[in-house]
Amino acid sequence: MTSHLASRRIASFLAAGISTLALSSGAFASEMTVVPEQPEFPAQTKITYVPRDAIAEFRSLPSYSEPQWVTEKFVDARKLPPVDERLPAEPLVFKTGNMPDGIGVYGGTLRHVIGGRPEGWNYQAGQSTGWGGIDIGMFECLTRTAPLYQVEASDMEPLPNLAKSWEWSEDGHTLTMQLIEGAKWSDGVPFTSEDVIFMWEDNIVDPNVSPLNGATRERFGSNTTLTAIDDYTVEWTFEEEFPRQYLFNMAYGDFCPGPAHMLKTKHPAYADTTYDEYRNGFPPEFLNWPVMGAWAPVEYRSDDIIVLRRNPYYWKVDEEGHQLPYIDELHYKLSTWADRDIQTIAGSADLSNLEQPENFVVALRRAAEETAPARLAFGPRLIGYNMRMNLSGNGWGEPDERGEAVRELNRNPEFRKAVTMAIDRQALGDSLVRGPFTAIYPGGLNSGTSFYDRDSTYYYPYDPDGAKRSWRLSG
Length: 475
What we know:
Layout: E1 33-34, E2 56-58, H1 68-75, H2 83-86, E3 92-94, E4 109-114, H3 134-138, E5 143-144, E6 159-160, E7 163-168, E8 174-179, H4 193-204, E9 225-230, E10 233-237, H5 245-249, H6 260-263, H7 275-279, E11 295-301, E12 305-310, E13 316-318, E14 329-334, H8 337-346, H9 360-367, H10 401-410, H11 413-422, H12 425-432, E15 458-459, H13 464-473
Parallel strand pairs: 3-13, 4-14
Antiparallel strand pairs: 1-15, 2-3, 5-6, 7-8, 8-10, 9-10, 11-12, 12-14
Helix pairs in contact: 11-13
């Protein structure tokens, strides 16, 4: 496989609010002006915006295939059913036209270096699996939002996933979801609405459980309810009308169900256990943990390595019927976060998110060499750093007199203008890394999204004198 030194999702997104002193013609420094053009550089990838259905769809195919070694070692030995019996009637099919490298080739190992350490596999009850993409490889969620950076603005809605489709009631208070039928956990147990309801009732709603990414009932609306209609249908009820925003919260990492048939054996609602025993009942040494994701954990050595191997029941395929994933194993070497850049540049790892700006220039230079073991691929600018001011007008908690005064000041538009004009965003960016890697971020929509329109994006540029004037006007 091709090595990647930089993740398209993260590396070049360090749009840390960096500004420039250039102003639109005829504008005063303390007036709003169109955001400057962002610097481009050859290593930055371009986005081709597509409708959602150009990415994937659920449908049946004439035939299916798998790696030869799986057939020989497991199917022929009667340890696994044939691949077509392990797949749902309508798997999720990824479309070739949206695959940059086309149909893939089976085999290989992806080597990754991470600084995290796994607590265990009970992600649903708050345990970290070690970060670095381990949870993304193991778990699947009701909807998907990761590919939305390339979806046309006119078609912006989460993609189906474990939830195959959904439909709103006429009054907009009820959402009926059809789950994928026939998909199985990696141990062969069917995935059903039981797994979804267990995630909701016994993890998200249960006040004694805190899912890893902080999912709560409020993330899906006050007094929202979720019930099972049958094994493959669930129904949401909302107080609001057509609250489509909650579809985004049903994606990673707020609504990724775990295997109820395993988790219930430790949950106090179903077993004679405590909540601590439930949370910590599945340590990293508990291998072959059932997953709905592409890879399952098969080996763990403390402070050394985690190995994930392809899930034989994975329910996604390409258009030629190859059961995914293409890659056989993921090896996560347990080291430090800084070490993953070093090892990738050296060729002893295959992937780095390149999150340390101080490594950008040396990585770019190394990638340009003929002997480079990896290629550098900066992605679109999709992450910006913000300073969020507390604008609460009715208090949050119990603020004292000073706290109330600060909040009142924050709500003053002239004060906020003073703050934004007092920030030298260019200097902040240069302090991280010099070059085209950072760009001004005025707040709001990021330039890498399909919604972005530079001509409609205004901000107050750096202007100490203008900041002082607005400060005086704020009282």
